[in-house]
Amino acid sequence: MVNKPAFPPASNFIRQIVETDLAAGKYREVVTRFTPEPNGHLHFGHAKSICLNFLLPQEYGGRCHLRFDDTNPTKEEQEYVDAIREAVHWLGFQWEPHEHYASDYFERLYQFAQALIERGQAYVDSQSADEMRASRGTLTEPGRDSPYRARSVTENQQLFGEMREGKHADGAHVLRAKIDMRSPNINLRDPVMYRIRHAHHHRTGDKWCIYPTYDWAHGTSDCIEGVTHSICTLEFEDHRPLYDWFNQRVAEAGFFSPPLSRQIEMARLNLTYVVLSKRRLIQLVEEKHVSGWDDPRMPTLAGGRRRGYTPGGFRTFAERIGVSKAHQVIEFSILEDCMREDLNELAPRRMAVLDPVKLVIDNYPADREDMLQLPNHPQKPEWGKRDAPFARELWIEREDFQETPEKGYFRLYPGNDVRLRFGYVVKCTGMKDGVVRATYYPDSRSGTPTADKYKVKGNIHWVSARHAHAADVRLYDRLFTVAEPGAEHDFLADINPRSMTAVRSQLEPSLGAAKAEERFQFERHGYFVRDRDGGFNRTVTLRDSWKK
Ligand code: ATP
Ligand code: MG
Description:
The protein is α/β, with parallel strands linked by helices and 548 residues long. It has helices spanning 13-23, 44-60, 78-90, 106-118, 129-134, 153-165, 214-225, 240-252, 278-286, 301-307, 311-321, 332-346; strands at residues 30-34, 62-68, 99-101, 122-125, 174-177, 192-196, 210-212, 229-233, 262-266, 269-271, 328-330, 349-350, 352-353, 356-361, 370-375, 385-390, 393-397, 417-420, 425-432, 435-440, 458-460, 463-464, 469-476, 500-507, 519-522, 526-530, 536-540. The protein starts with 12 loop residues before the first helix and ends in an 8-residue tail after the last strand. Bound molecules: adenosine-5'-triphosphate and magnesium ion.
């Protein structure tokens, strides 16, 4: 389902760069990529990056690749690869046939590295990790050349070959780029290109025991794929000179031809009331503060999906928050507003009693039932109507009755007339043994010519007790009680102990047939989604209940 944008796309600095590059003829099409590391599940921050990377080529012509950044052998797992593919598809994006893996390029990267060695632009360093750290310098002091920096090309070739063949232990040597140990940019002080790691890789198995670093693999992979605009987060701004250095050297060696890929940095998404760090998300799952990766309270795409969030809502959100170069913290309520807007368009209306109390209509015959037709969406008559039986015994919300009404209360209290939504007007006669009692006006049925003579202020929803579908409904609240979890102490101390309330509810019978992931508006309560376990999860309330 394609979400129609609420307003035309706003210009931003990334669109401007793309437009300038296209106008100048630098690139003929826009090729972006989304590069998750398969060591965790995707979260709401990734959704921003996914929408941006996939929508730019849709807008300007081109394509987006999905590339798994699997350069790190020990932390990555197939389970994450599968979950990431599913989440990106769920958001509504396609990348096929451009599913790539950094590990697919290991052989080519190795050749590139050999070329750099041959050209005197890379060398094998045999200092210990501590020695390397000590000679690296600081932000204010230059680094010092490694005693191995002057090794001959032949010796470097020999050692690098041995590293690959497994002749050396982890940590014995590294391959470094020969750039400048005195550069004011620490990233250019002879950065490491390869480390020895005798470790099994989820795709290449035991073929390799040297693994490329992120900086070395990332830009070269972009160029291999013909990526034009390589969008990343701000932490990589200082890595851009290195990104360009590597690609230019490999191009000079004859492996790439211009135009080379261009790195663009933007601010990462930070959201109030959630955590978006993989480490913290993993901790929440492993320490069982939540039921799993797809717990509806988790800010993961799997969690959002089970919560009832929509792909269209995420797209609207990504467009609305835009992209910027400045650090940004976005209010969680903006995401919720985007979900509400989308759900208002796509969720049929239903009646659901979440805190049920019985209402008995004493003058309505026990063996009778009216079949009422209720509109599925008030603004969309084309969505049609559904049947809802009306009978003598109904479930209503406990809060829709007050023995002694407070000021301004228009719902059920002894002597007051109220309309049962889409049904009859009833007069409340009181409460006995925990059951609310009333009588009904037979000529007040909604939609009949005589209905209009009843002017009532209260209009409440109901469900026939005999026909109701009983279900567990989970009312979710924010997972953290503070806007910035962990700002003052361990983030776990900010967990909201009341982030989930389960209620046994009585729903209109048509909801019994709802399929998993079907979404509804429960009138007066909010948007809900059917869970795979048969219950319903509240996605979001109708209004922002957090606004004071
Ligand atoms: P780490 O590198 O610590 O494992 P990560 O959050 O960078 O975590 P990746 O899987 O590497 O996770 O991220 C994939 C892509 O998503 C990257 O291009 C990254 O820039 C982008 N991304 C990650 N987090 C955010 C965020 N909060 N906002 C926007 N983009 C993000
Ligand atoms: Mg990363």
